[in-house]
Amino acid sequence: MSAHSRVLDVLGGRDPRRRLRLVQWLIASAVYVGAATLLITGVGQGWMNTSALMLWLGFVLAVLVVGYAALRSGWTERFRDPSVTVWQLSMGVIAVNWGYLICGPMRTSALFPIMVIFAFGAFTLRWREIAWVTVLAVSSLVAAVAARALYPQWVPAQGEVAPLRVDINNVLMLIVVLPALAVIAARLSNLRQKLRDQREALSRALAEVERLAVSDELTGIANRRSMRSLLEHHVALSARHVMPFCVAILDIDHFKTVNDELGHAAGDEVLKAFARRASETLRSSDVLGRWGGEEFVLVMPCDLEAARRVLERTHRAVFSSCYPSRPITFSAGVAQHHPEESADHLLSRADLALYRAKRSGRNRYVEAG
């Protein structure tokens, strides 16, 4: 293990979530340290009182030590928000407005870190908590302004500062604050990217679930459930004399022999090739679905005469192209829907016709009576 990793383990522990919370604490600490450095230089420049600064530094140091100890020990993990974000941000607000109170002519720049405070809050705070931090920020700033106006004796005396020095101090405070904001912005950008990736993955997963719900996993064509829904739809149309339709039940001849002689993998290939070649011969309005095993159902919105032509084209298409080493044929029973009958009765008639086709020697279709 490298020295860098050992230091990280000592400071942040090995729990990745605890480490992340301590990284956030470290960013806040860096802002505190940068602001404190500017205030310390202000003592020599005459705009910061030493005793006021020491009190402020003592408060900030206590907040950082208590925060680190609570986070590093895991004590905060008993709470809903293990980062104790509201407490940390509230302490930050108090520190910022306290700094405003004691900074004299540089007090405007003391407010800059408030941007970091609210940027941190965007990660985890709910609207009620954000409202609380906002109220605390405004009310404590108003209190600081009122204290400066009503009780000037409470504010340590500070000298006058040239306008250029004020501008320089503002720039330096921005240099302290902006890197922290950049880190937060980068993390928010990463979170947005993760959310986009998750949404895209979820959309793909939902599309796949929807596809599997209506498609046969092996052949990719409509499954039994989808074909039942389609049949009910066409039955409703036919019952209102909107559109006649026919149903054919197709069964691959001697499929068991294919499995026994060539193996189940070859059988699967035959099923996929059969579904693909048969689908290629169909009209756009015809739908082929796998009913189960080697049985397929074909729904054709047409009369028997047109259905015969569809089945003949399908016979020719699959005969020599489904499996290279042997011709593949199928038997079929076809029935035209009667407006008064149910989907189950229609399927039963087509199934009886299929049985007759098999009894008659296979490799043919028979029309239901």
Short description:
The protein has 369 residues and is α+β, with helices and mostly antiparallel strands.
How would you explain this protein's 3D organization?
The structure is a single chain. It contains 13 helices and 5 strands. The termini are far apart. It has helices at residues 3-12, 16-45, 50-73, 85-102, 107-110, 114-124, 127-150, 163-214, 224-239, 255-262, 264-281, 304-319, 343-359; strands spanning 246-252, 287-292, 295-300, 330-336, 365-367. The chain folds into 2 domains: 3-206, no CATH class; 224-367, Reverse transcriptase/Diguanylate cyclase domain (Alpha-Beta Plaits), CATH 3.30.70. The protein has a 5-stranded mixed beta sheet with strand order 2-3-1-4-5, sandwiched between helices. α13 (343-359) links the parallel β4 (330-336) and β5 (365-367). The protein has 369 residues and is an alpha+beta fold. It is rod-shaped, with a radius of gyration of 39 Å.
Low-confidence stretches: none
Distinct helical segment count: 13
Radius of gyration: 39 Å
Strand order of the largest sheet: 2-3-1-4-5
- Secondary structure: helix percent: 55-70%
Give the rounded overall mean pLDDT.
Answer: 88
What is the global morphology?
rod-shaped
Number of domain units: 2
Proportion of residues in extended strands: 5-15%
Please give the largest β-sheet: 5 strands, mixed
Note the run of SSEs as H and E: HHHHHHHHHEHHEEHEHE
Structural class: alpha+beta
Number of strands: 5
Q: In whole angstroms, how far apart are the ends? A: 82 Å
